Predict the 3D structure of the following.
Amino acid sequence: MPTRAKSHQPRPGKRPRPYGPILLAGLVVLVVALLAGWALRDPGNQAANAGALPQPPASPGASPGASPAASPARAGASPTAAVAGGTTVAGATTTAVDVYAHAHAGMLSPVVRDDPQLVYVPNLSDGTVSVIDQHTLRVVATYPTGRGPQHVVPSWDLRTLWVNNNVGNSLSPIDPRTGRLAGRAIPVTDPYNLYFTLDGKSAMVIAEANHSVDFRDPHTFALRHSLDVGSRCAGVNHVDFSPDGTYAIATCEFAGQLVKIDLAHERVLGYLDLGRTAAPQDIKIDPAGRVWYVADMNAGGVHLIDGDTLTKTGFVQTGPEAHGLYPSRDGRYLYVVNRGGMMTSDMVPFPHTGDRGSVSVISFTTRKIVANWAIPSGGTPDMGNVNADGTRLWLSGRRSNVVYVFDTGGNGGSDPTTGRLLTEIPVGHEPHGLAVWPQPGRYSLGHTGIMR
């Protein structure tokens, strides 16, 4: 506190001092000091001011011990702010991420809202695509595309479905507004699979036979850079992305490895060995952006991976020949597709026979199986996706030449314990990565519809 001013008389022979300005300055200092002291004594005011500041989004590897009050966004916490890869819930101490926040039921983009509800099935051995009406459950068209079509992939801007003609070295465009081919195929080398970076600036063609990830123009597919992932990633085939899009992790089926890729510099960051006989397939990140699930068809389950450190943290046994992975529409569950075969040789390419296929449902919260959907007559479910409202899971029957339709149980998949197989629809030979369209989401990261 400032000292109180005292009265002074001028000394003899000295000129009197102008005390008015001095007193005014002292008064100002006194008021400022009093205000500062009040602010320091009022922690509630400080907390309110601190809470008004924006909080940074959580890193992809944030500790799983975050405050429950801050997760997830749909639990009703507020306020919220949109960030790349999901929605953050900003509180006084922490931030939660929901990777799939923009891909829940009813969140169709205006771009796709009027697209017909169809399913596009690539028939690998026939070089064709079968088109199924989601309502009548009937094949309404079949047309040739190119040799060895592996997957039907939604473009980043949701305006084209690309058929990956792997053997034919081309991509055939389908117009989802008409359900028909939309022009000539574009020549592209070894397009086993196709993905897009979060910003939509690059397409990533997964050239499995060439051991490379080819970064291309997302519209013309002109090659910009071919990243050689080497023999340590033999059989590179499936990919998913960190919440902020800074890195991706790809599976290496024939090498039993994962490869982590720096997307800004398009370079390899490291590898993770899952074991000599491992055969990793599909890969999906959980809604919180912390745990990556990797299907291993030889191990019959999914590995749990910390993507930031690229370390294995666990394993969940599901069923024989675990293959495709799809989050439920509400983001609570992961559908693990078990193709049902038993490995007949531990030599690459690990042949399997059998038809004990099923779908295992894992809770993202507990990381445990909560339901298992069998195919009573036997089957080989492979790849697919969930429909727009989350009530149906569509899967190709790779060795059975059919498409399976599962009821996901409850309201939009809310009760997987009541899920079950609804029907089987005959299609062509060796159906593989089918696309269910339209899908909720702002943009597509590729494969059969990784929506964000």
The first strand starts at residue 80 and ends at 83. Residues 38 and 122 are 71 Å apart (CA to CA). Confidence is low (pLDDT under 50) at residues 1-94. The helical segments are 19-40, 43-51.
